[in-house]
Amino acid sequence: MTPIRIAIIGFGKIAEDQHQPAILGNPRFALAGSSSRQGKGPEPAFTDWHALLDTVEGLEAAAITTPPAPRFEIARLCISRGLHLLLEKPPCATLGEIEELRRLAAAKGTTLFTTWHAQHNAGVAAAKKLLAGQRIRSMHITWHEDVHKWHPGQQWVFEPGGFGVFDPGINAFSVATAILPGPLFVSEGTLSFPVNAQTPIAAELRFTSPAADGPLSASLDWRKTDGEEWTIRIETGDGQRLDLIEGGARLFLNGDEVPGSSIGEYPDLYRTFADLIDRRASLVDVEPLRLVADSLLVARRETVEAVTV
Fold first, then answer.
1. Residue 64 lies in domain
2. Which of the following is catalytic: 40, 89, 128, 149?
3. Core-most of 111, 190, 219, 264, by most CB within 10 Å?
4. Residue 140, domain member (yes or no)
5. What would the mean pLDDT of 6-16 be, rounded to a whole number?
6. Over the stretch 203-254, which tens digit does the pLDDT of each residue have?
7. CB neighbours (10 Å) of residue 81?
8. Active-site residue 13, yes or no?
9. 276 is a domain residue
């Protein structure tokens, strides 16, 4: 089978660390070029993504790994040229943009894949299976990390459309919406905005769900300096306790680790992408992005000290 010729648009750290190795390790794909503002990346490398699309011959697919704000314009042109698209999370800056891309891809007959890499961790599928048909007594998400470690010098995360603490927090939402046996809705919360930022650096949230009979909450914080904590703790109505730790990589049931298997988050993303292309199907999941939008609509706002990245 001839490999699918794919380009990476927005070649930065996540593309270098995750997307490039996953593509090179998958025989279904051939990496045909890249673009970035610095012109660094797999050859041929361009500083202008328009030039990439105009120059690289036989291009069939693209992975868009830019910040979310410019994604819509890039994706719209790619779809118009018949390219299959993989979108790094979050897929777009707004729900309206991703819905329009869904419509355009369907009309063109191309694959659109909104990726949520945390859903492809080893413990997530096992947790979903264990929670199927269960009532939820409680859930608490703790997603704490250091913005200076993960986004050094990247001021865009605190600009409009940069998502702030929801940039990592949306990973938690993607796992929660994947494993819970019912939809999740934001009911209230508090968002902490640095005095010099347009996006929050922390969030304390409460949720409701028709599948739950008790409290559902999340604590997101970008100010933790002594390591990361990415956990989801769930208690079920029949007294079981599930702990997803390390972003979903490991699952514990009543304190005992549940064996899980995964080829890796990003390798599994590209395995899924190839399968979707083969079937001329799309996978567009907007629930994590909806929870971010709903949080910004219903939560209270507080001002905290300035932040520098």
1. 4-114
2. 89
3. 111
4. yes
5. 96
6. 999 999 999 999 999 999 999 999 999 999 999 999 999 999 999 999 999 9
7. 12
8. no
9. no
